Amino acid sequence: MSYKMSGFEEERIPEPRYSGWSLKSKILVALIIIIGISVVVGTQSFTVVPAGMRGVLLTWGEVTAVLDEGLNFIIPIAQKVILMDVTIQKAETSESTASADLQEVTTTIAVNYRLNPSYVGDIYKDLRQDYENRVIKPNIEETIKAMTALYQAEELVTKRAEVKLQFELIIKERLATYQLEVLAVSITDFQFSEEFSKAVEAKVTAEQRALEAKNELEQIRYEAQQLVIQAEAQANATIAIANAEAQKVTIEAKAQAEAIQLIQAQIAQNQEYLQYLSILQWDGVLPYFFGGGVIPFIEVPTNSTSSP
CA of 279: how far to CAs of 5, 30, 95, in Å? Predict the structure, then answer.
């Protein structure tokens, strides 16, 4: 600071003032800002679509393309990407309704589905990302009501496979309208009223008892048949034995008769044969006659001639 003398007073002359930002500093700051903006714009110019996803490209809010998995280029600010899951997903719903015989039943259905990758843009236009609550669950509930009304409560259990197949056909047709692919359907549970459950339990118990009684009757019948078979076998054996004995007696009698006939024939042809048989039967003791003595053998000639 300088001073100028004027008489007895000193006049203070102000020094020139300099700005805090030099031209060089301003240029440096501008470069930093430009680089920062470039980095931000550069990072926003690319987007990555993960595996199992599709990217719905919005240009000023309008769906203009669907991006595949991997690195994709976009225009910052003007464009943005909405990720849509095209992997297999599951929607599970429970619904209480009445069967054909007016029994209350709560059915739980699980549906495995996925978005059709070729129509992800249309799905986003119509349903955004809330397709499960907007379309899938309401259609599952409506299909449960329609299917349950066609079957009696007991048939829902006994015809479970048929019910599942019919449900799958209906839900596939319904969701295909929205480009949603149904891959599998599972009936995870049937819940009936307490009264119906007790009635089913009583029926099953009665059927089991009837089956046990039937089995016991079959066992008794089988044992009786075994006794009959044994008795028949024993009777057949007795008859066979009797027949064998009778045949044996017949054979013996026939043989004896033939022997007698043979003996008689021999006797008729030869009287000496009778004497031969007597000798065979003789015990060596001569018979006695009245008055004492023994009777000698007397030879009786077969052909005697009288003398004149």
Answer: 211, 169, 119
Nearest CA to 184 out of 89, 68, 288 is that of 89
Distances (CA, A) of 294 to 160, 225, 284, 297: 116, 76, 12, 9
Q: Report the interhelical angle of 160-176 vs 137-148 (nearest 10°).
A: 140
Q: Distance (Å, rounded) from C-alpha 236 to C-alpha 242?
A: 10
Lowest mean pLDDT segment, chosen from 9-23, 156-170, 197-211? 9-23
CA 68, CA 89: separation in Å to the nearest integer?
Answer: 19
CB 153 within 8 A of CB 192: yes
Give the relative orientation of helices 272-281 and 194-269 as an angle to the nearest 10 degrees. 120
Q: What is the dihedral angle through the alpha carbons of 17, 20, 23, 28, rounded to the nearest 10 degrees?
A: 180
For the stretch 183-241, pLDDT in tens is 999 998 888 888 877 776 677 667 667 777 777 778 888 888 888 888 888 878 788 78
Written out in words, the top-level CATH class of the domain with range 89-192 is alpha beta
What is the domain partition of the chain in residue ranges?
47-85, 89-192
Contacts of 177 (CB under 8 A, 6+ apart): none
**Residue 91, strand partner residues:** 111
Residue at token pair 């919005």:
58
